Model the fold of this input.
Amino acid sequence: MITAGRIVRLAERDRAKVQFLLDGEMRGALAGDTVLTAMLASGVALRKSEFGPEPRAGLCLMGACQDCWVWQEEGSRLRACTTLIVDGMRLCTTLPENWP
Ligand code: FES
Done:
């Protein structure tokens, strides 16, 4: 599990812990985090850019720019900055290969 992330929690660290899978790696978050917060607090990037080598970390953080799409393992896409993390969520940074 990655413990150092792109963002650092300064407050509200006493919320219930949740776990989620990201690209097959178990990660931890706190209840009430958005998926974006959960991913950046437990890792250094949201996903790779589809246009170049740079990693992405979201842009607007308020549901307007469409820069934070990630997928659930069963193929549905979600906007990471406006979706709350749920314990047991199984997320992918690219469209799952077994998706039709
Ligand atoms: S970061 Fe802009 S829509 Fe999510």
The mean pLDDT is 91. The chain has one domain: 19-92. The pocket of FE2/S2 (inorganic) cluster is lined by residues 58-61, 63-68, 79, 81 (CB under 6 Å). The chain has one helix and seven strands.
